[in-house]
Amino acid sequence: xxxxxxxxxxxxxxxxxxxxxxxxxxxxxxxxxxxxxxxxxxxxxxxxxxxxxxxxxxxxxxxxxxxxxxxxxxxxxxxxxxxxxxxxxxxxxxxxxxxxxxxxxxxxxxxxxxxxxxxxxxxxxxxxxxxxxxxxxxxxxxxxxxxxxxx
Length: 151
Known about the structure:
This protein has 6 helices and 2 strands; from the N terminus they run H-H-H-H-E-E-H-H. The chain has helices spanning 2-29, 37-48, 54-61, 65-77, 99-121, 125-144, and strands spanning 81-85, 93-97. A two-stranded antiparallel sheet has the order 1-2. Helix 1 crosses helix 5 (99-121) and helix 3 packs across helix 4 (65-77). The radius of gyration is 20 Å and the shape is elongated.
């Protein structure tokens, strides 16, 4: 049955994602500032939405306000984020990355890219080409749905 083959492929993709997650976590651990995956997600969210408030960040992280507030306390203490009064209302706190926070994110991105490059470099050229085609097809199917029914 086609579903069994699809389930098998989905399982291999899940295994690959686990491997990629491990690779990225290990690479991030080599950064000058050690951050948990949750802290990194918060920094990435603030990089994507500068000036976000605690509620927006909590929504983005799918976490409670007290948890996100404590997370921001730690990031602020590490010099990675700033809390300022929002320009439109002083009752609201606006969050933004510091220059150090942006530098740490850039460092983590570089370490992760290097680690991934090593793995991809170890693949044969035809395997790299097949991986690239597969990733493009995956992204397209995720974005737009399968190209044809049953395929």
